[in-house]
Amino acid sequence: MSDLDLFPDPHGEGRPPERPPGRRAQQRVRTRQKRRKTNGRAAALFAMAFIVAVFGTGGVLGVAMLDDKMHPPDYGGSGSGSVTVQIPDGASGSVIGLTLVRHQVVKSTRAFVKVYNKESRAASVQPGFYQMRQKMSSKAAMALLLDPKSRAGSQLTIPEGRRASEVYQLLAKKTGISVKEFQAAARNPAELGLPSYAKGKIEGYLYPGRYDLDPKHASAKQILKDMVARFNKEAEQVDLVGKAREASMTPVQLLTMASLLQAEGGKPSDLPKISRVIRNRIAKNMRLQFDTTVLYALGERRLSVTNKDLQVDSPYNTYRHTGLPPGPICNPGPDALEAAVSPEEGTWLYFTAVDPTNKITKFGTTEQERLAMEREFRKWQADHPGQ
User: Fold this and answer.
1) Is the model's pTM score more than 0.85?
2) Which of 61, 74, 131, 287 reaches 20 to 30 Å from 214, CA-CA?
């Protein structure tokens, strides 16, 4: 028996143990290990280079962004040329800056806002048209906006309650454009942006307020168009169409009521009460009997009417016709529009301006109260002859 028989193969395969690898095999193993180490170092170096590149670029970008924020791009000097810029009403510093950038006056909004926020008089910049220069520094642009001499065009204010014919006269006096040109523009309602329910009539849709006239494009048509646009905006804000629907009225009827409130009212606080009087009288099928509607039919302006005036044959004569007149009798302002859509609760059927000088109006429900208010008004007339 051999030694191999006495000590069997532990793996059970019955073969002699393998010889240790030769030199060539050991060399191949060492070569593979060396390659793995080299590739690992290369991968690590590549990863480090990638991280440095990414974070290095980000750092550069971050510094650039920080510098742009602290020192936004801006022109230098007072600029050159001439450009007319309109600053809208209620514009913030950023809105003004954006407007100036759009006209190439300043280079960036941020640069202008930075100057605007440091200027103690910035809030005194008024809306309107300004004669500016292009490629100005933000500081120079701010100085021009604060200089009254840089104002371009003109401003005018249309009081509340004026009739269309009176508005034309005010516009003609301020702009030098003839009344006939405004009348001609009004005869082309499709070009003025009137709402569809206006049926081409402009009375009541020339919204009162302050207007800045473009020195280059202030034509009769453009001015009326701007006023109608202001009306459309206000009507949308008070939801004129929706409120008219809720009251089972048309938008024209509600606007007509607003014009009556404007013509009849003394103080803004009286308007919601007068609005209720109108609705109460219409509900009871009572004639409104407003002197203002009669005077509109006559084309006149005075405090009271005569018995002869009350006989005028016109659908605007609310002494002869029940309900609202066929359309507005003036151009109402925001308080009258708001009161028309939101009347105050009450049972009043009468109101009288007992003291027109101090704009004191009293309200009543009974005939006795109406007579008492009338006597008080007659006394005021006796104390103020000629008024």
Assistant:
1) no
2) 74
